[in-house]
Design goal:
254 residues; alpha+beta; Creatine Amidinohydrolase; 5-stranded antiparallel beta sheet
Length: 254
């Protein structure tokens, strides 16, 4: 297994540029989300914005199957779609929740972030799911400090989510990020405290709770990308790129 990379101060400064673009896109897209806008319109806006900043969309053309590379800038996942939804001419509808995941590459370093938004007025159940997932991200990030272990993050997320009556997806994980979009270590959203790789100052991590209203089980659509909940109930996804320090973690995608 490859070791996690420790970033030098110069590298962290470069990563901050990519992460700042990620944060700005998510802020701008929040203002665009409304019933009847298509997910493709959101995707086109994001790609144009990224390129206007001298950067590249990290997800477009990504994948291990050369016959089925990811075709878009954003992963847009609605309601029971957990992650990796492909933008299309689908129009958003009142009451849906939409998770937007975006990666940016600038000067050969990556930033990665995701947020889940309400489309108009949503049900109390969906609102509770969104709050719990966002809070789970905050709880996990607090554990991302030197001297802790990766699964301290995992256990904190799992414990918080399950106390809210929801479940964490087990087939997908957070990850290190830097000169590659996905680096070591893998960061599950479940686990035992004080296990997993030791966290060290200078690690940069994409921490990303994926939380389901019902079962943690998921399935993949025939497109080879879209991940859905096995029971058809909603899912939410929040993600930040975080720098491990000796003290409080530094959120880079903010």
């Amino acid at each position: 297994m490859a070791k996690a990379t420790i970033k030098a101060p110069r590298e962290i400064e470069i990563m901050k540029e990519s992460c700042k673009i990620v944060a700005e896109i998510l802020r701008l897209l929040k203002g665009m989300i409304r019933p009847d806008i298509t997910t493709k319109e959101l995707d086109q806006f994001a790609e144009e914005f990224i390129r206007s900043q001298g950067a590249e969309p990290a997800f477009k053309g990504y994948g291990s199957d050369k016959k089925n590379l990811f075709p878009a800038t954003l992963c847009i996942s609605i309601d029971d779609e957990v992650v990796h939804g492909i933008p299309s001419n689908r129009k958003l509808q009142e009451g849906e929740i939409i998770a937007i995941d975006v990666g940016v590459k600038k000067k050969n370093y990556f930033g990665d972030g995701a947020w889940t938004y309400a489309v108009g007025k949503i049900s109390d159940d969906k609102a509770k799911l969104l709050r719990a997932t966002e809070q789970a991200l905050e709880v996990g990030i607090k554990q991302a400090r030197a001297g802790n272990h990766v699964h301290d993050i995992s256990a904190a997320v799992q414990s918080f989510v399950e106390k809210q009556g929801f479940s964490v997806v087990r087939d997908l994980v957070g990850h290190g990020v830097g000169q590659k979009l996905h680096e070591e270590p893998a960061i599950p959203n479940f686990g035992e405290p004080r296990t997993g790789p030791l966290l060290q100052k200078g690690m940069t991590l994409a921490i990303e709770p994926m939380v389901n209203f019902g079962t943690y089980r998921v399935r993949i659509d025939s497109d080879g990308w879209t991940v859905r909940t096995a029971d058809g109930l909603p899912s939410a996804h929040f993600e930040h790129t975080v720098l491990v320090t000796d003290n409080n973690p530094e959120i880079l995608t903010i």
